[in-house]
């Protein structure tokens, strides 16, 4: 067990680099398993989720060599088709191994995936799509596994009922080696998905977006090896941006540009946060009192759900009342009680929504009534020290941000959840002047 001890009140200043994008790196590992040739992936983030995926690849029969931030994967032969329950429980992207297992071996046994509990995040949309590709899938509640078989994956046309990032990517991965053409309608369009498409095309796949939410995949008989570099993580950019502003500091995030950050930067400008695009990256700085600014999360190109909790803590420092409406996941305000321990004034409520089926991206059912889908953040609030627990990855970064801006010394438990998505987060914050220490119990 580890904890973070953070003494707030330090203005963060200096330059910092962000890691490779988690949501590209994990999917690149799955893509590498579609070929028997060597795939080299550079700029991988050394986070706990990454190492879980590496362990799964080794368990399935692949060889992995990691040197610094470059990984070489060779899945010459798939030796097993069953993923261990304990591995799948740790990470949601474990379900994506359905694609290479079905494409190369014709069968897969995948447990119901885990990860951060920010909502149900069912994989039913993916399962429905795979069934249309000729896959026989049965879920056995007695062992918690999806049992899937297919003699050969067949191209199909599939329309996603709701936007699904992971579902879109899994269907792309399955379709590249399928017989014939697959057309995905209402497909997600996050930049990370286009990075996966670029990687697969480098490996010999034939994939293109014919329209913004339509992806066409012409199946090929085999893929080959390649070398691919992971781009910077958008979520880390936002985290360090808010860290600089909420501490009234000045932080340059190196090696990044505005691509994929437009909605965040527009809201940051609206609330009075300072930013400037430079040759070396983007500078984020405090330039005066912040203004209350409402946001509604949405799938790309909307305001990203992963930015929601850091935005809430920023709004505790803004003048007025900010409304934050979460439409992507049904249970993403678990961190609010922890912020309240530090003096934040936040009220959760049920917003009036005329057509919830069209507004919300999660499956609607009676259990949703116990989850609040919106919050009011009142500011400016003087945050103080507290002893808090991390409930999920982004909430972890949020509590660290709050502690950096708070008076006194805070203790943060549940650091393992933070390590799922941030490499050496405390060390990079210290390089900017933060008073933060990681302590083993």
How would you describe this structure in keywords?
441 residues; alpha/beta; UDP-n-acetylglucosamine1-carboxyvinyl-transferase, Chain; five-stranded mixed sheet; four-stranded mixed sheet; 15 helices; 26% strand; globular
Give the SSE map.
Layout: E1 2-7, E2 13-17, H1 22-32, E3 38-42, H2 48-60, E4 63-67, E5 70-74, H3 85-88, H4 98-104, E6 107-111, H5 124-132, E7 136-140, E8 145-149, E9 157-159, H6 165-175, E10 181-185, H7 191-202, E11 206-211, E12 214-218, E13 226-229, H8 234-246, E14 250-254, H9 262-271, E15 274-278, E16 281-285, E17 290-291, E18 295-296, H10 308-315, E19 318-325, H11 336-341, E20 345-349, H12 356-359, E21 374-379, E22 387-389, H13 393-405, E23 409-413, H14 415-418, H15 425-431, E24 435-440
Helix pairs in contact: 1-2, 1-7, 4-6, 5-6, 6-7, 8-10, 8-13, 10-13
């Amino acid at each position: 067990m580890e904890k973070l001890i953070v003494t707030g009140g330090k203005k963060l200043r200096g330059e910092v680099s962000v890691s490779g994008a988690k949501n590209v790196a994990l999917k690149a590992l799955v893509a590498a398993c579609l070929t028997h040739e060597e795939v080299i992936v550079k700029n991988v983030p050394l986070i706990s989720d990454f190492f879980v995926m590496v362990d799964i690849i080794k368990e399935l029969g692949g060889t992995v060599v990691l040197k610094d931030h470059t990984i070489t994967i060779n899945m010459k032969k798939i030796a097993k088709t069953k993923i261990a329950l304990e591995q799948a429980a740790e990470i949601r992207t474990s379900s994506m191994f359905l694609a290479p297992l079905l494409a190369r071996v014709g069968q897969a046994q995948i447990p119901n995936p885990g990860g951060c509990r920010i909502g149900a995040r069912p994989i039913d949309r993916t399962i429905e799509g795979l069934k249309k590709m000729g896959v026989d899938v049965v879920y056995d509640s007695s062992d918690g596994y999806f049992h899937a078989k297919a003699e050969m994956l067949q191209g199909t046309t599939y329309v996603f009922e709701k936007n699904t990032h992971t579902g879109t990517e899994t269907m792309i991965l399955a379709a590249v080696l399928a017989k014939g053409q697959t057309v995905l309608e209402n497909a997600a369009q996050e930049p990370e998905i286009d990075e996966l498409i670029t990687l697969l095309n480098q490996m010999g796949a034939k994939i293109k977006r014919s329209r913004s939410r339509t992806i066409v995949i012409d199946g090929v008989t085999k893929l080959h090896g390649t070398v691919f570099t992971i781009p910077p993580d958008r979520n880390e950019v936002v985290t360090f941006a808010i860290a600089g502003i909420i501490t009234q500091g000045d932080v340059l995030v190196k090696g990044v540009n505005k691509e994929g950050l437009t909605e965040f930067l527009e809201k940051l400008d609206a609330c009075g946060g300072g930013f400037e695009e430079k040759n070396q990256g983007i500078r984020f700085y405090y330039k005066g009192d912040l203004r209350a600014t409402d946001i509604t999360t949405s799938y790309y190109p909307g305001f990203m759900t992963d930015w929601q909790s850091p935005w809430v803590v920023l709004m505790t420092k803004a003048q007025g009342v900010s409304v934050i409406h979460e439409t992507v996941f049904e249970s993403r305000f678990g961190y609010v009680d922890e912020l309240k321990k530090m003096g934040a004034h936040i009220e959760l409520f049920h917003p009036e929504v005329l057509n919830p089926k069209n507004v919300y991206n999660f499956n609607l059912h009676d259990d949703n009534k116990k989850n609040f889908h919106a919050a009011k953040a009142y500011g400016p609030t003087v945050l103080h020290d507290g002893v808090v627990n991390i409930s999920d990855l982004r909430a972890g970064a949020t509590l660290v941000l709050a502690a950096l801006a708070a008076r006194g010394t805070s203790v943060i438990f549940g650091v393992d959840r933070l390590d799922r998505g941030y490499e050496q987060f405390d060390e990079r914050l210290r390089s900017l002047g933060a008073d933060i220490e990681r302590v083993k119990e």
